[in-house]
């Protein structure tokens, strides 16, 4: 029989009493509060296994109750109840650390399952693998237990079974492709293909051809028909990574696919259907791009149906040792060698780094560590030797150092920094570093 202590914060007497009775009959120890202030007080005064709070309260908000619970017991799961028209606010609550949300009217069976899952996850916190690794068959593992990551994962689980367009935002190297693959693997489209395209890696003159394909004879050298990514992703999922780099001339054609589900190949007149679920990803501020005229506002609104923000690695430093140990296993498997053991002093050193290139940059450092390891253990001294001395410096200094280390090879410098080539080119221009190191010092 279920067990655990649950706090209910709900101002409607009839609903509060119904929830109290239903959960008590399931074996839970239940306490309740009728308003936000009482809920805030009670959330901070005792150890709860779960807090269930209405989002809209007469003297405050369920977000205030969430904040009080997070201050008192950061790992206690908080589930928010939301009415019609407040789902967007519930999504914001999840970004702040809520475990999940449930729409009214409350279906008791759904509530039972949600509470059982939430309390089960809470009690599994001592189990490293169970608590820290999110793995879906058919997709790479996502590692971490930080509340911001877990909030993003809850949103992923909510939206994956739907057909909604998803917009993944976050810095380069934060794992947007991992999220996209997990969305596909959890969706009804999982038997279909997962196809990705990095919009920043394709020259502007070729991007339309990559997206939509071409007919034989469409241009010089087009000796055969070639399908594009929308066609290759038929009945599956298409990830358009770094979608902020799409040229304006192509944006309208992508918008048409989203609105009408149709497109034509380059050089062709036949209209084709696109049975594709789109996941877009970006490391840029798309709203600012709309304001500056770089991105069509109608395309932005079509992409921004269900945004999920991925936290930067420096914002979840407590996850770095977990991620590092997971990456060491993966890297060692790829190199067919035994993974070195990461000592606590080395893990602490890694956790203290700012990692502007995020997980991609961390993986690059660890790959060098595996290749250079002279024993079965990685100590802080082994890691320190691989970290650039300007690790804590500003972005301009890091860019300059990576360019020097790569001998001016911008593609290699981008790899060292864990960012895309196109992003590096933009940042080099922003910081006036063109010509480093050959012509300028």
Keywords:
441 residues, alpha/beta, Rossmann fold, 5-stranded parallel sheet, globular
User: How far apart are the first and last residues' alpha carbons, in Å?
Assistant: 70 Å
Structural class: alpha/beta
Low-confidence stretches: 124-130
Q: CATH topology of the largest domain, what is it called?
A: Rossmann fold
The CATH homologous superfamily of the largest domain corresponds to P-loop containing nucleotide triphosphate hydrolases
The main sheet comes to:
5 strands, parallel
How many structural domains are formed by the residues? 3
Residues in helices, as a percent range: 40-55%
CATH class label of the largest domain = Alpha Beta
What Rg, in angstroms, do the CA atoms define?
25 Å
Give the DSSP E fraction (strand runs of 2 or more residues).
15-25%
Extended strand count: 20
Mean pLDDT over the full residue set: 87
Shape: globular
- Count the helices. How many? 20
Biggest sheet, strands in spatial order? 2-1-3-6-7
């Amino acid at each position: 029989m279920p067990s655990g202590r649950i706090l209910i914060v709900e101002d409607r007497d009839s609903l509060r009493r119904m929830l109290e009775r239903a959960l008590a009959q399931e074996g839970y120890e239940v306490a309740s509060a009728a308003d936000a202030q009482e809920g805030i007080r009670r959330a901070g005064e005792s150890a709860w296994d779960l807090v269930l709070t209405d989002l809209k309260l007469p003297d405050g908000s369920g977000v205030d109750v969430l904040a009080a619970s997070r201050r008192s017991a950061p790992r206690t799961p908080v589930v928010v109840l939301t009415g019609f028209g407040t789902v967007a606010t519930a999504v914001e609550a999840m970004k702040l650390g809520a475990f999940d949300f449930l729409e009214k009217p409350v279906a008791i069976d759904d509530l039972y399952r949600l509470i059982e899952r939430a309390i089960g996850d809470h009690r599994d916190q001592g189990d490293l693998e169970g608590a820290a690794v999110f793995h879906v068959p058919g997709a790479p593992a996502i590692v971490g237990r930080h509340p911001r990551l877990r909030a993003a994962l809850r949103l992923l689980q909510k939206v994956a079974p739907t057909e909604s367009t998803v917009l993944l935002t976050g810095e380069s190297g934060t794992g947007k492709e991992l999220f996209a693959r997990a969305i596909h693997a959890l969706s009804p489209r999982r038997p279909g293909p997962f196809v990705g395209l990095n919009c920043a890696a394709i020259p502007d003159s070729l991007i339309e051809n990559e997206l939509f394909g071409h007919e034989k004879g469409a241009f010089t050298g087009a000796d055969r028909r070639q399908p594009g990514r929308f066609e290759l992703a038929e009945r599956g999922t298409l990830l358009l990574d770094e979608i902020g780099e799409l040229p304006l001339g192509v944006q309208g054609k992508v918008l048409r696919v989203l609105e009408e589900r149709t497109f034509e190949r380059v050089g062709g007149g036949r209209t084709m259907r696109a049975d594709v679920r789109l996941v877009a990803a970006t490391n840029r501020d798309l709203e600012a791009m709309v304001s500056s005229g770089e991105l069509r506002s109608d395309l932005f609104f079509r992409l921004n149906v269900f945004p999920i923000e991925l936290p930067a690695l420096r914002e979840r430093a407590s996850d770095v040792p977990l991620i590092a140990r997971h990456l060491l296993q993966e890297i060692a498997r790829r190199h067919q060698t035994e993974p070195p053991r990461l000592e606590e002093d080395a893990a602490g050193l890694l956790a203290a780094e700012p990692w502007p290139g995020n997980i991609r940059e961390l993986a690059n450092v660890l790959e060098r560590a595996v290749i250079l390891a002279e024993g079965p253990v990685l100590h802080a001294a082994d890691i320190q030797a691989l970290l650039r001395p300007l690790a804590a410096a500003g972005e301009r200094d890091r860019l300059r150092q990576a360019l020097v280390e790569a001998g001016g090879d911008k593609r290699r410098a981008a790899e060292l920094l864990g960012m895309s080539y196109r992003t590096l080119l933009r940042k080099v221009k922003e910081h006036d570093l063109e010509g480093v190191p050959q012509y300028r010092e």
